Amino acid sequence: MGEAPAFCFDNLQNGFGLKPKGLETSADVGDKTFVIGGADNDSTSYIGVKIYDKSTGKWVIPTVLGTKPKASKGHSAILLNEDRIMIIIRGSTPDDCIWFLEVDTKYVKEQRKILGTEVVAWSRGVRGDAEKPVVISGPSGVGKGTLINMLMKEFPSMFGFSVSHTTRAPRGNEKNGVHYHFADRSVMEKDIKDGKFLEFASVHGNLYGTSIEAVEAVADSGKRCILDIDVQGARSVRASSLDAIFIFICPPTMRELEERLRARGTETEEQILKRLQNAEAEIEQGKSSGIFDHILYNDNLEECYENLKELLGLNGSAPTNHKPSPKGIDLPLNHSVSKIDNKILINCETLELEKASKNLIALDVSSLKGGAPGRTRGLNVYALDSFSDGLNEKLS
């Protein structure tokens, strides 16, 4: 790690110290200087970002994607891997103090090409990892809903559904945030434009979609997210930054699927024929598109369910308790920051981090996963007595 005297908090290498309220931090990436702080271009409630292009001598206001961190009393900024900047926010809540501003990641590069403008993207940092979400698709009548309900019944504390968004009005006893997130069309259209949705579609004039935040909220609760979406939605999710398992449920034959649809007794002949036509197209895409990691044939429901559990690692002595929600990092107002390799060291005058009497916190960023427009997970946190502590006391 190097000797402690080589590092001085008053003269940071690859980092910038805390600034008084109203001042900004900056980081150089290539011929661009990213200035972070002050008011956001759209609102004074969020941290702003602007870019100075040294090659042209001009300032650029970028398109900012992802959920933005709220304006704060100050922050530290540390450049990581030339593609993102870690932001440590002063005076924030424990679960809201670590953010990443992506400036040249794969996601940002893709969005830059799509939008034709300069782009940056925010991602909130989270301690620890989360189980991969599970995307389940299949034609109507194939039994995917039944399979999902069986999973939820057997493992109620392990799995959770993401709540979809829609612009249609609530029906009957539908509750906002339970059955759907009911949204104004203008708000949802803006969020889609800002890259906050994994997938969306227009159905009978109304928008439906799965937001990144809805999926991340399930992971934040310590559960594994299940997404029940069609093939087109699965294609969009596959193209996103979400690391998920993709499973397609297929009927044994089209004749069997037709018999199941007719047995429902809920649809007209025209509707059944339409569903069968759509099913043929979905099955062809599901088998040949390369979207799905696994294809399960639902010839026998119990056998298909056992195969599904095996794919998810739930056969045998599977744990039934969900992981605890990731803990935040409780930082005092007065602290300073430096960087050593893949470790970010935070020097605190006083510290009450899980009742540890340490004066240093180390953030290990060597195992980061995910990223904008969702969470950045995999942060490991250590409490140290001093630089020579070796970064070997890991907090649970």
Automatic annotation (TrEMBL):
Domain Guanylate kinase-like, first and last residues per copy: 131-313
Q: Which domain of life is it from?
A: Eukaryota
Q: Which GO terms describe its molecular function?
A: ATP binding; GMP kinase activity
List the catalysed reactions: GMP + ATP = GDP + ADP
> What Enzyme Commission number does this protein have?
2.7.4.8
* SMART domains registered for this protein in UniProt: GuKc
| Gene3D superfamilies membership | Kelch-type beta propeller, P-loop containing nucleotide triphosphate hydrolases
Is-annotated flag, keyword ATP-binding?
yes
Task: State the UniProt keywords alphabetically.
Answer: ATP-binding, Kinase, Nucleotide-binding, Transferase
- Could you confirm whether the keyword Iron appears in this record? no
Give the EC class as a word.
Answer: transferase
Q: Where is the signal peptide?
A: none
Please give the GO cellular component terms listed in this UniProt entry.
cytosol
**What is the similarity comment for this entry?**
Belongs to the guanylate kinase family.
NCBIfam families in alphabetical order = guanyl_kin (TIGR03263)
Q: What is this protein called?
A: guanylate kinase
Q: What is the protein's species of origin?
A: Gossypium darwinii
